Batch of 2 targets.
Target 1
Amino acid sequence: MANFFNDNESLKFHLHHETMKEIVKLKERNYADYGKYDYAPSDFEDALDSYEKTLEIVGEISGEILFENAESVDHDGPTIVDNAVVYAKGTQQNHEALRDAGLYGMSLPREFGGLNFSYVPYVMAAEIVSRGDCGFANIWGLQDCAETIYEYASKELKDEFLPKINQGFTCSMDLTEPDAGSDLQAVQLKATWDEKGDCWRLNGVKRFITNGDADIKLVLARSEEGTTDGRGLSYFVYDRKHRAITIRRIENKMGIKGSPTGELVFNNAPAQLVGDRKMGLIKYVMSLMNGARLGVGAQSVGLSEAAYREAFKYAQEREQFGKPVLNFPGVYEMLANMRAKTDASRTLLYETARCIDYYKSYEAIAKERKLELEERQALKSYQRVADILTPMLKLFTSEYANQITYDAIQVHGGSGFMKDYAVERMYRDARILTIYEGTSQLQVVAAIRGVINGGYINLIKEYEAKKAGPEFSTMKKVLVSMRKRFEEAQERANSFGSNSEFYDFNARRLVEMCGYLIMGHLLVIDANRCNSFTNSAELMIRMGQSKVEEAATFIMNFEEASLAKYKIVSDCKNCEV
Ligand SMILES: Cc1cc2nc3c(=O)[nH]c(=O)nc-3n(C[C@H](O)[C@H](O)[C@H](O)COP(=O)(O)OP(=O)(O)OC[C@H]3O[C@@H](n4cnc5c(N)ncnc54)[C@H](O)[C@@H]3O)c2cc1C
């Protein structure tokens, strides 16, 4: 029986991280729910046991049902019947299996029927589901919307919607419009207060909405007439029972074909305000997006794991020149780099999840009682780190999932190009990961703050100060030399002023240099705990060293005047026809 949790020791390794005892204690408020709710844990060991048992179920459903259905779902896709989206048969089966196992609303408090999972095991479940079927992970993962309702909506809205999520009611996050993609400040969908109906009314078009026909929709809309920026936007919850939306079409996509992506017309749709007016984009969407970016990180790692395994299996079985192709340096180099990138992505994922766990728990406790000084400092410090790690995570893991699925096809040779092999689908599924929830370019726009305010370099120095066994001294020395090279490049970029176009032009290079350093350090820390990560640590640092050198050389030799050479392409004055 395939079980995508039990067959993956790396997941258990991260679940047993030394900080988990403290994280779970905070999340469980020192196990205050014990005795009040069935299955509430009595102590850390009990909680960990419950996480493992639940993840085993996720692993079994993902291995036995989601993965098995993935091919037919990719082929069949969803359809529209009478203005309603009908999932592919396999998608419906996936949804029911996870719903019946109680795996919706996992992170919600028990009072709303949830499992009160901390982020680490919840994200782990998302990774496992994504390994089963990357596209289906969207439908399941949109339960994240529950978090936003829980954090910001009124008690009435919480009571109305949250228990439904646990029952398997589906969600969607409706932000994008034809003229508002990366720039969500441009959202135009109109929200007007209806005095008679005692509700808000939504009118306008949303496009590219995953699971657009969901039961519960969180919608960003312009509530303040005459405004043109983010300060005029509020957040609303819409219940599908009103049937006030026309599904204009389902997109015919390149990948994640089982995940319905719809264009929707809101026709005077009744909705209720979530939280405060005008805070829609500034506060609530930003918070939801951060959760969704963590989700795409998990999706990317799950897909990377799946593609690596397919490629490794094939390379062992396929023989050429009288031996398995795995034996050729050109092939085993690809596989070793795929493994290293997957391990690096995963360690970044769980480091980010742990920081989010800490600060979210402190935030929640702050609503119950006044925090001690030390707790307030911890909240701020973990939040700062989570804020800079989240865009870095989304950037690296999604780009790596694309590289890994690309190489997985390469390892398969011509067979990889055929629909007979799962890697063909995985390669198509990967392509969206660098686009939705903010493109890679937008992740750089967010992450560059960590370069400018010194957040990354402080973190890197903290990792540098951590002790590791003597076998890691060479790796640590290389990491120090990489850090110095980054500082040189940063100094040069700073000499042009952090607001200049020159700086923006090199922002991705600066962010990526920090990423290689952070992933290198995290893998050394992991390898120091368990030597099965030593290989990946060494390979990632070797890879990172050459990437940092490449980026530094580019920046050191770049003149502001060189920008014109790049701009000429877009000006294109010479090729008028
Ligand atoms: C399959 C799929 C599912 C989706 N699901 C949802 C969903 O559930 N809910 C939802 O609300 N949306 C969803 N989206 C929309 C998605 O989030 C947007 O497509 C994405 O944010 C990019 O917006 P855009 O397509 O308008 O591209 P644009 O914003 O037009 O970007 C075009 C190019 O310009 C670059 N660019 C734009 N601004 C900048 C900048 N400031 N700096 C540097 N480069 C920049 C981009 O990186 C990109 O390369 C989905 C999209 C797809 C394809």
Target 2
Amino acid sequence: MYIFVGIFLIIFFFIIVSFAYGGLLAAPYVPMWKKDVQRALDLAKIKPNETLYDLGSGDGRIIIEAARAYGAKAIGFEIALLPYIYSYVKIKLMGMHKDVQINLGNFFENDLGKANVITAFLSTRAMAKLKDKFEKELRPGTRVLSFVFRIEGWEPEIIHKPKEKDLPIYLYRIK
Ligand SMILES: C[S@@+](CC[C@H](N)C(=O)[O-])C[C@H]1O[C@@H](n2cnc3c(N)ncnc32)[C@H](O)[C@@H]1O
């Protein structure tokens, strides 16, 4: 009995620590509304042969929709254990693991150079940190979509906010 309680507490500890770590590194887990996922992917004009990276992929809603509705190859990076496991299982159960890949880890430590489209719903601080990485790694023509948070010092090609109550999506294109 004590062993089970011990194992449960250890797992619980890792889950909480990984949530907190994600929050400290870039942003806590807050899922994007489904209508905004659609808005972001429409704005990205993603094509079937393109690759989308979602930085901090949460429950996988963006990468799954990018592959399901747009035929893209989609790759997510997630540091918090619970959303990672949830999205991993969901992708397997949906039989989408050929087109949708999910990596457990820190996106700051991964090369982003193969992306055609980057999506991020993070924080002002995280976007400031990512700006240098984007400038070093992303190829010309890559679209960067930041939900809510502007990249200071970059001029957005589009600020999408169709209604007053909508949150802005900033679309940037690497020159
Ligand atoms: C605001 S949520 C967005 C989730 C998802 N992209 C969406 O829009 O529904 C941010 C996510 O980024 C994850 N995260 C934060 N920093 C990270 C990092 N350095 N590497 C990987 N994931 C990170 C958090 O754990 C959280 O799940």
